[in-house]
Design brief:
Elements: H1 2-19, H2 26-38, H3 49-69, H4 76-97
Helix pairs in contact: 1-2, 1-3
């Protein structure tokens, strides 16, 4: 399911890349967006398309990481268990050094 969302966000970044031109106003963006949405499968590849696809996927990954880590899970016991394991191994190493 996550792969479908990643592909869709990459394609969305590709299409939005066509609409954005530096120095243009918002009206140009929306007019161009209407043209792109009329034919979304046309060839719009340009020199910045790869960057836009990577940025779209990056934004999606950040959103998914935020979603997965914000679930109502209590991670404190897991953290305490890991810390306890590290502390015991560090004590053993320090005792063998001294």
């Amino acid at each position: 399911m996550y792969l479908i969302g990643g592909a869709a966000s990459g394609y969305g970044g590709y299409l939005l890349n066509v609409c954005y031109q530096p120095g243009k106003d918002i009206n140009y963006f929306f007019n161009r967006l209407d043209q792109v949405m009329a034919a979304p499968f046309a060839n719009y590849w340009n020199e910045t398309s790869l960057k836009a696809i990577i940025l779209g996927i990056f934004v999606y990954v950040i959103g998914m990481v935020m979603y997965v880590t914000s679930r109502n899970r209590n991670l404190v016991p897991l953290f305490l268990q890991i810390r306890k394991r590290w502390q015991s191994s560090l004590r053993i190493k320090m005792n063998t050094i001294i």
